[in-house]
Amino acid sequence: AQSVTQLDSQVPVFEEAPVELRCNYSSSVSVYLFWYVQYPNQGLQLLLKYLSGSTLVKGINGFEAEFNKSQTSFHLRKPSVHISDTAEYFCAVSDPGGTNAGKSTFGDGTTLTVKP
Amino acid sequence: NAGVTQTPKFRVLKTGQSMTLLCAQDMNHEYMYWYRQDPGMGLRLIHYSVGEGTTAKGEVPDGYNVSRLKKQNFLLGLESAAPSQTSVYFCASSYTSGRYNEQFFGPGTRLTVL
Fold first, then answer.
1. Which of A30, A37, A111, B42 stands the most exposed, by the fewest C-beta atoms within 10 Å?
2. In chain B, which residues have their Cβ closer than 8 Å to the Cβ of A108?
């Protein structure tokens, strides 16, 4: 079974400051990893994903994440945040094999609030 | 392309009433999913479908039924609504298996059961 833990439920930060949203996962097999963003009153949209290859993954809106297999982490970072980055962020993991038909397991979410 | 659309956007039900939520996608995706989102609990998979005419149970299927009679539509039914089903419901779709492909989400349906 796989699980995802987002270590911070809320992260307040000032505009133009750097931010890191932390995600740890547990799985007995190799995994695919995703970060999604949900703006208020909207559905989720993909920020970035890790399937294989380079452990540093770049996404939209200046976000990037680093896959660390030894620490089973996939933390999301942005060097300078903007007010418009205020949203809820979800980390998700899926199993490349097996019969679960691509179901992803989502973390509980981290609310990023960017203050002026 | 409209992407993934959901009908209705809001609904209030009384305990015991029934309703159907409609999800439609115009991206010719094979896989479709229904999730519920509750505060502090992330997204939990209710049911999913890997193609027209197929459905399967997810993590929290009790109290819900689904049908996928057409490839572009995925219906979620509540036969006898309960207050515990008050939630925001999201539909999603993906071209092939969501294991390695992103899922595209609809805007959500906010359901309140009194």
1. A30
2. 40-42
Question: A–B: how many Cβ contacts below 8 A?
Answer: 70
B64 vs B14: CA distance, rounded Å: 16
Cβ pair A61, A79 in contact under 8 A: no
Instruction: Provide the pLDDT for residue A94.
Output: 82
Q: Which residues of B touch A (CB under 8 A)?
A: 4, 31, 33, 40-45, 48, 50, 56, 58, 90, 92, 94, 96-108
Contacts of B44 in chain A (CB under 8 A): 106
For A2-25, the pLDDT digits (tens) are: 789 999 999 999 999 999 999 999
Q: What does chain A look like in DSSP terms, one character per residue?
A: --EEEES-SEEEEETT--EEE-EEEE-SS--EEEEEEE-TTS-EEEEEEE-SS-SEEE-GGG-EEEEETTTTEEEEEESS--GGG-EEEEEEEE-SSSSSTTPEEE---EEEEEE-
Residue B98: the pLDDT is: 55
A95 contacts in chain B (CB < 8 Å): 99
Q: Evaluate whether B35 touches B90 at the Cβ level (below 8 Å).
A: yes
A98, pLDDT greater than 80: no
